[in-house]
């Protein structure tokens, strides 16, 4: 399999270099990779260090406004234009791979094509290094009429799921040929949109059988962040790409659950105006 690994980095050089070290230390006889990295305006020397230590990495540059969605799309489109890849692996630069990742992807691809007659999306679950509990992975939809999901743990089989985080996620070229790369409207949250989009297009989404990496869940409590802000600051946090990401949430609802847009609008404004009511 020929795989393009897609990474976006911003001002965490040490984590980016550790990620690349783990990535290049996990060879597999049946896997060949090319690495595409977007440096979204880092000022800590990320690009220079990567170029020095990993000269084969294909670096694209952003100006600090791309975030994960724009940075991933920039490198992903470059990879699509460059070659005939069998698939594409999203990899967060704060994520460290386990050695089983490639064999899991190979087996998932074989299983998927035999069972569904097409490649799909294979989602790798990660463990928190500090708690050794699941941090990211694939999610099952609780109610088909609402955007409510529960995180599934690997169970030794290729479990179907409905949506997934993009920390370690393989997308077959069969999917890309049908729906393309990420939706352009996202800063963050594009991984949820893309995986659910593929799900609505009837592509199989599978959780890999075992944990394949480590990544700390760095999503802080919104309630805590809102409570320490005044009203003006809370409204800014509502729209911030590193806050409640209101526009992203609305876009996802409009695309897949338009009947629930008004409910989400009310919910987010209640959070902003009355954060003490949040659970």
Describe the structure.
With 279 residues, the chain is α/β, with parallel strands linked by helices. Helix content is 39%, strand content 20%. It has 10 helices and 15 strands. The protein has helices at residues 13-24, 46-53, 67-82, 101-116, 173-179, 190-200, 222-227, 231-239, 246-256, 261-273; strands at residues 2-9, 32-39, 58-61, 87-91, 96-97, 121-123, 126-127, 134-136, 138-141, 149-151, 159-160, 163-164, 168-172, 205-207, 213-214. The strands form 3 sheets. It has an 8-stranded mixed beta sheet with strand order 3-2-1-4-13-6-14-11, sandwiched between helices. A 4-stranded mixed beta sheet has the order 5-15-7-8. Strands 10-9-12 form a 3-stranded antiparallel beta sheet. α8 (231-239) packs antiparallel against α10 (261-273). The termini are far apart.
Task: Quickly describe the structure.
This protein is α/β, with parallel strands linked by helices and 279 residues long. Helix content is 39%, strand content 20%.
Round the mean pLDDT to the nearest integer and report it. Answer: 94
Class by SSE composition: alpha/beta
Largest sheet: 8 strands, mixed
The tally of helices reads 10
The helix content is 25-40%
Name a few traits of the molecule.
single chain, alpha/beta, 10 helices, 15 strands
Write the layout of secondary structure elements.
Blueprint: E1 2-9, H1 13-24, E2 32-39, H2 46-53, E3 58-61, H3 67-82, E4 87-91, E5 96-97, H4 101-116, E6 121-123, E7 126-127, E8 134-136, E9 138-141, E10 149-151, E11 159-160, E12 163-164, E13 168-172, H5 173-179, H6 190-200, E14 205-207, E15 213-214, H7 222-227, H8 231-239, H9 246-256, H10 261-273
Parallel strand pairs: 1-2, 1-4, 2-3, 6-14, 7-15
Antiparallel strand pairs: 4-13, 5-15, 6-13, 7-8, 9-10, 9-12, 11-14
Helix pairs in contact: 1-2, 8-10, 9-10
């Amino acid at each position: 399999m020929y795989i393009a690994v897609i990474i976006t980095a911003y001002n965490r050089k040490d984590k980016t270099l550790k990620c690349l070290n783990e990535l290049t230390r996990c060879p597999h006889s049946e896997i060949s990779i090319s690495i595409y990295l977007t440096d979204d305006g880092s000022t800590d020397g990320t690009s220079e260090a990567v170029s020095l230590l990993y000269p084969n990495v294909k670096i694209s540059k952003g100006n600090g406004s791309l975030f994960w969605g724009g940075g991933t799309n920039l490198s992903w489109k470059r990879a699509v234009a460059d070659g005939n890849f069998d698939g594409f692996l999203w990899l967060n630069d704060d994520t460290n791979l386990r050695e089983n990742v490639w064999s899991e992807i190979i087996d998932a691809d074989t299983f998927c094509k035999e069972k569904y007659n097409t490649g799909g999306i294979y989602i790798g679950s990660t463990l928190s290094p500090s708690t050794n509990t699941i941090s990211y992975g694939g999610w099952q939809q609780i109610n088909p009429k609402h955007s409510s999901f529960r995180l599934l743990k690997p169970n030794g089989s290729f479990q179907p799921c409905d949506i997934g985080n993009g920390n370690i996620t393989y997308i077959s070229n069969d999917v890309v040929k049908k729906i393309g790369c990420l939706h352009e409207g996202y800063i963050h949250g594009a991984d949820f949109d893309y995986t659910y989009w593929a799900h609505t297009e009837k592509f199989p989404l599978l959780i890999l059988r075992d944990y394949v990496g480590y990544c700390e869940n760095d999503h802080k409590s919104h309630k805590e962040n809102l409570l320490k802000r005044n009203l003006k600051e809370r409204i800014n946090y509502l729209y911030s790409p590193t806050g409640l990401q209101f526009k992203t949430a609305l876009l996802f609802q409009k695309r897949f659950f338009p009947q629930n847009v008004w409910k989400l609008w009310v919910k987010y404004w209640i959070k902003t105006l009355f954060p003490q009511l949040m659970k």
